[in-house]
Amino acid sequence: MTGHLPVLLAEVLQVLQPRDGGRYLDATFGGGGHSAAILEATATGQLTALDCDPEAAARVDSLRASFGERLSFHGINFRDIGTIPEGPFDGILFDLGVSSFQLDDPQRGFSFRAGGPTDMRLNPREGLSAALFLETAPREDLIRAVRDYGEEQSWRRVVDTIMQARGSGTLSDTASLAALVSSVVRKTYGRSTIHPATLTFQGIRLAVNEELASLEAALPAAFEKLAPGGVLAVISFHSLEDRLVKRFFRRMAGMPEHENDSAPQQSRTVRAQLITKRPIGPTEEEVKLNPRARSSRLRALRKEAKA
Fold it and tell me: Is 230 helix (H, G, I), strand (E, B) or coil?
């Protein structure tokens, strides 16, 4: 096992129920905790792992020492899940968001706890860094990141302050960016324990990595990769991610996707059954051991045998 703490591990194993001879996909390898647990739960099961972070490959190699050819790996974003040759799978897992390895490395630029380059890319080999995004993005894109993705109530002040700071060097360092954001939103949170820059950093990260668009593309592709009777499980940490997952799952189950979905029942197709009627959250004990699990939510569905 790796050193980090995989969230909702017991709950993931409960819904996936790994079995001998089963084939599984971890679409977000990260630190490898979920992958290792799935492989440990079965003597002959096979697992394929995906991760676009180039640093994940070394962690995969460390697991191969224990599991050998039972573990295969592709260094790709999960939005490209449809391109892998493996499958169909008896279980597929997505653990969305950022791994502890990424959060704890100041050079990756995800955390406001320590200074480092404002990067935030899940794959630093492609795309714009967060610093370049903040320096050059049109105002409308900044609003989308801070207001829509970050759900920051003080978005106007944050966006105005970022635009005024362009060219000053403040936006290129996570510590100075966090201080800048905190200076205009601190009063909004009162006695809340959340860091004032949390929501803004979250929104910028989602925007830079196009995470919501990737998830929207990956879910149907993953469903098609499921074997009949296979389970799709998704852990989310953000309300927008969870909403996408919830609506997709309900659509696959032939249910109204939201309260305004008035499509006639005869136009719906039941291709899966919900395993979780409501998302499963962490226990108090898990949150004490791993505070980062606090906002995690697990949803799961089972593909119909004839879907």
Answer: strand
51 phi and psi, to 5 degrees?
A: -170, 130
Distances from the Cα of 207 to the Cα of 1, 114, 133, 150, 281, angstroms? 32, 21, 9, 9, 25
* DSSP strands (E only) in 133-277: 226-236, 272-274
Cβ count near 202 (within 10 Å):
23
C-beta of residue 100 within 8 angstroms of C-beta of residue 292: yes
What pLDDT, on a 0 to 100 scale, did the predictor assign at position 186? 63
Measured CA to CA, the distance from residue 232 to residue 81 in angstroms comes to: 13
Q: Which residues pair with 235 in a beta bridge?
A: 95, 298
Residues forming beta bridges with residue 95, ordered by sequence position = 235
**What's the Cα-to-Cα distance from 16 to each of 26, 34, 186, rounded to whole Å?**
11, 11, 42
* Tokens at 270, concatenated: 């039941």
In order of 29, 66, 171, 221, 283, the CA distances from 34 in angstroms are: 8, 15, 35, 21, 17
Tens of pLDDT, residue by residue over 4-31, are 689 999 999 999 999 999 999 999 999 8
Give the strands of the sheet with 23-26, arranged side by side.
Answer: 71-74, 46-50, 23-26, 89-95, 226-236, 297-303, 272-274
Tokens 């936006």, residue?
Answer: 171
pLDDT in tens, 241-276: 999 999 999 999 998 777 776 677 777 789 999 999
Spatial neighbors of 102 by CB under 8 A, at least 6 apart, are 53, 108, 110, 122
**Placement of tokens 């499963």 in the chain:** 280
Q: What is the share, in percent, of the chain residues with pLDDT greater than 90? A: 74
